[in-house]
Design a protein that fits this description.
This protein is of the alpha/beta class and about 290 residues long. It has one domain: Rossmann fold (3-Layer(aba) Sandwich), CATH 3.40.50.720. Helix content is about 40%, strand content about 15%. Strands 3-2-1-4-5-6-7-8 form an 8-stranded mixed beta sheet, sandwiched between helices.
Length: about 290
């Protein structure tokens, strides 16, 4: 039996930071239903206790770096829902040391881009009604990206900052490519630069790395609260927007110009093809759009 609610939001990375703040804000919408995707069940249950008294909730555990797990999640969601109105691709990480996913893909790229690409693509293909909006949380770090070493770094050429920057550029290119491929149907895509935010980002690299991240941005007096970082995400998820804003990058509720490479059509098409190839390890095949 498929669920029916007034507005259904899906949020990845909901257990802390911007994802948690986004979930708390959206839970205040009358008749909202939140599909909450995370990896840490213990933290997830703590957040769920706050949310389930406010709105409908559905918590699912998934490692977004795993093609197999994302496929299984998508299949289960398609069985359970006729429509998911808004997809917020928020989960993200940076790894100080080179790591690979279970599929042999550099972990930053697999987590920050490929998992979200696969999840959104399968929901677009499989739901009876396509999502109305897809929101990708990017970063100003995309301005430091370059393609000389390729999208997916290796153990030999790994650089944590470049790996993260490339994944955030991929978020932007995916956003723009969605806006082009679906410009004639009722699906819009947006990207968000939330700014430096006090979250658990970089906590996976240990306490020292996490504190350095917070202290650095705090010293520069640019650190925001999680609620402030989530504000533009919530705005894009809920407000009526003009059609000409489809595919745009937003910061502080305002469209901003990304780095020039984030608007290269050839680059976004190449990334789309690469992502389809990587995500099709197994039975997944992206419908030709």
């Amino acid at each position: 039996m498929k669920h029916t609610y007034r507005t259904i939001f899906l949020i990845t990375g909901f257990t802390s930071g911007i994802g948690k703040a986004t979930a708390l804000a959206l839970s205040e919408i009358p008749d909202a239903h939140l599909i909450l995707i995370g990896r840490n069940a213990e933290r997830g249950r703590r957040v769920l206790k706050r949310l389930e008294q406010r709105c409908g909730t559905d918590m699912r555990m998934c490692d977004l770096s795993s093609v197999k797990q994302v496929r299984e999640l998508s299949d289960n969601l398609i069985e359970s829902y006729a429509v998911i109105d808004v997809v917020v691709n928020n989960a993200g990480a940076r790894f100080d040391q080179f790591k690979e996913s279970e599929d042999g893909i550099e972990l930053t790229f697999a987590t920050n881009h490929l998992g979200h690409f696969l999840l959104a693509s399968q929901l677009i293909d499989g739901l009876a009604n396509r999502p109305k909006r897809i929101i990708n949380v990017s970063s100003s770090a995309h301005r430091e990206a370059h393609s000389e070493l390729g999208w997916i770094l290796t153990r030999e050429n790994y650089n944590r900052s470049l790996a993260y920057a490339n994944s955030k550029l991929a978020n932007l290119l995916f956003t723009q490519e969605l806006s082009r491929r679906f410009d004639s149907v009722s699906l819009s895509s947006y990207a968000v630069d939330p700014g430096p935010t006090a979250t658990r980002f970089a906590r996976n690299n240990g306490l020292v790395a996490w504190m350095k991240h917070l202290v650095w941005h705090g010293w520069k007096k640019e650190l925001r609260s999680a609620a402030q970082g989530a504000d533009t995400v919530v705005y894009l998820a809920t407000e009526a927007l003009e059609e000409n804003l489809n595919g745009k990058l937003f910061a502080d509720r305002t469209p901003v110009d990304p780095a020039p490479q984030a608007e290269e059509r050839e680059l976004s098409a190449q990334l789309w093809d690469l992502s389809c190839s990587l995500a099709s390890r197994g039975r997944f095949e992206m419908t030709k759009l």
